[in-house]
Structure formats: structure tokens, C-alpha cells
Amino acid sequence: MQFSNVLINWYLTSKRDLPWRKTNDPYRIWLSEIMLQQTRVEQGMPYYFRFIEAFPSVFHLAEASQQEVLKLWQGLGYYSRARNLHDTAKYIAEECDGIFPDNYKELKKLKGVGDYTASAVASICYNEPVAVVDGNVYRVLARYFGSDTPINSSAGVKEFKALATELLDKENPSAFNQALMEFGALQCKPKNPLCVSCPFNNSCLALEENRISELPVKLKKGKIRHRFFNYLVFYSEENTTLLHQRKGKGIWNGLYEFPLIETEKQLTALEFLSLEEIKEKTGENSSIQLYNEKPVVHKLSHQHIYARFWLVSLKKTPAKGIPMSKIAKYPVPVLIQNFLNEYEPADY
């Protein structure tokens, strides 16, 4: 209980003024928690406000098209979160009359909701005594208890969930969970933690053993995959271009991009233009020019993409074209958006 009291007292005087802390509305709490997975608060905040403005209730979100949701999410990354968010909104609106489940067990059944999100919503909205464990919590607990169990191992997941549950203030789980996450974000930071002013500096094992920089331990990721993307940017005399929607289980499912030719390595211009696929996609009467000799490197968690853009000038697009002025309506990967931000053909 002493740990809980010290932590909550720290929270009451040090917490940030965040919009989702001013409500117990499960829709807004759920939205914020989904957005903040793999995302810093500073990055996620503008998206949260835009979503609330566009979709003030779960019914508004459910009624939107997937394209609208993905467009608003554009740039936040990990797009499966947006697709799951939309699917869950439709389920809540259509099957639950807009009412979210009021307990951890039922919340965890929702699409895109795992242990962390279910625990957060259940404790914050309904004060259910379930412990939250996110990246910040892992770091605080690993350092405080001096644990070198890898946090991304099955043993680590069990160990730190058990520790968080043991420490949990059963009478005030909402404040405790938010306090523990906030403590990791502001005090027990990944780099340069504020150990001198830390209220636990007399009982933290990592500090005592001079192991702050070593903890938490994380297993190394698998080998990074390197991919070579060649985008064909069509622009016709009709001021149209082509966009294709990505499908399947790969990256950027549901987003749009220019016609793509992926190669096993980076080819020279001569090698690339000699590909039979080029003729099939562009036709005979087209002019092709390389836009960027040096590839744009786009790094994702498990793969690095090396992208080059090829400008394809022709009288008429080989399929139904999209007016250049309408491109902004389509959700696209950041890689494509950055290109569009700097690409300015004469008639664009």
C-alpha cells in the first residue's frame, strides 16, 4: 500500500493535463488508448482531437467509411489499429446499441482490444481492479524490482502482470494505473530518468545496483527485411493519375498507392526500364523519367523500404484515371504523402 500511496501522491502533483483524463466516457478512453499504442502522446494528441471532432460518438465513427477513417488516421502508422477501431465501432453501434462492455473480460473480446486496452478501459471507466501493463509500466517495474526477465518474452509478460497486480491499489485502480503509466513517461524515462528526484530512489534495486541503463531487458528483434519499391507515377494530358488500393495481410492494407513494381534489389535505370512488366503497365507511347536517383528509405518495425518514383507521361492513363486534384481525398502511406508534398508537375 505504501508504494501505491507514494505513486498516487506523485501523480496528483505531476500529471499532465490530457483531454482523456477529463472524462470517464468509455468511447473517448477507448479511442485514446488505441491511438496511444506504439505512439507518443505528443504525436497522438492532434489525431485524438481530429477524431473527436469528426466522430463525436461511436455512432458517428461507425457510420463513416473505412476510407474516411484511414484518411484521418494517415501518418499515425500501424494502420491495423484504425481498421480494428472502425470494425469495433460498428459492432458497438449495431450490436450493443452504442454501449461499451463494462468489464475487462467482455472488453477483451472486442476486435483490436488486448490485455492492456481492456485493463485500461475497465479500470479508468468502471474502476475495475485490473492492472495495466504497457511499455512505461514494464520499465518502472523492471527497474524497481531489478528484474532482467525480457519484457517481450512470455515469461516477462506473466511476471510483470503479476507484479503490477500485486502492487495495484484495489480501492482506486483508475488513479493507480494512470499514475504508474505517467510515472514511466515522465519520471522513469527510457533515457536520463529523473532518479535524483524520484520518490522511490531509496528502494529502487536498479538504482542501488547501478543498472538503470541496463533495464528493462528486451529480446532482439528478428532480421530486418529490405524491400525495393518502384512506384509508377502516371500523369496524363487529361490531368489524371492512377492509384491502387493495397489489399491482403501485408503493410498498409486499405491504403492507396501508385502502381508498384517491387524488385529483389535496386536496379539501374536501364535494368528497370528493360523489365517486361514496365511495358505491360505503361504501354508503348509513354515517356518514363526517374524522379529520385537516391531511394527514399522508409523504416518500419520489421522492414526497410527503399522507394524510387518513376514519372510516366502519356496522353491517357491505361485505366480509369483519378484527377490529380482528387488525390488528397485518398488515404495513403506517409511515404506516398511525402512524395506528393514535394511533387509538382506543371499541370498539378
Automatic annotation (TrEMBL):
CDD domains: ENDO3c, NUDIX_DNA_Glycosylase_C-MutY
Cofactor note text: Binds 1 [4Fe-4S] cluster.
Domain HhH-GPD: 35-186
Keyword check for Transport: no
Keyword DNA repair: yes
Gene3D superfamilies: Helix-hairpin-Helix base-excision DNA repair enzymes (C-terminal), Hypothetical protein, domain 2, Nucleoside Triphosphate Pyrophosphohydrolase
Enzyme class: hydrolase
Alphabetically ordered keywords of this record: 4Fe-4S, DNA damage, DNA repair, Glycosidase, Hydrolase, Iron, Iron-sulfur, Metal-binding
EC numbers, comma separated: 3.2.2.31
PROSITE patterns, alphabetized: ENDONUCLEASE_III_1 (PS00764)
Matches recorded under Pfam families: HHH, HhH-GPD, NUDIX_4
Function summary: Adenine glycosylase active on G-A mispairs. MutY also corrects error-prone DNA synthesis past GO lesions which are due to the oxidatively damaged form of guanine: 7,8-dihydro-8-oxoguanine (8-oxo-dGTP).
Name of the protein described by the UniProt record: Adenine DNA glycosylase
Species the sequence originates in: Autumnicola edwardsiae
Top-level taxonomy: Bacteria, Pseudomonadati, Bacteroidota, Flavobacteriia, Flavobacteriales
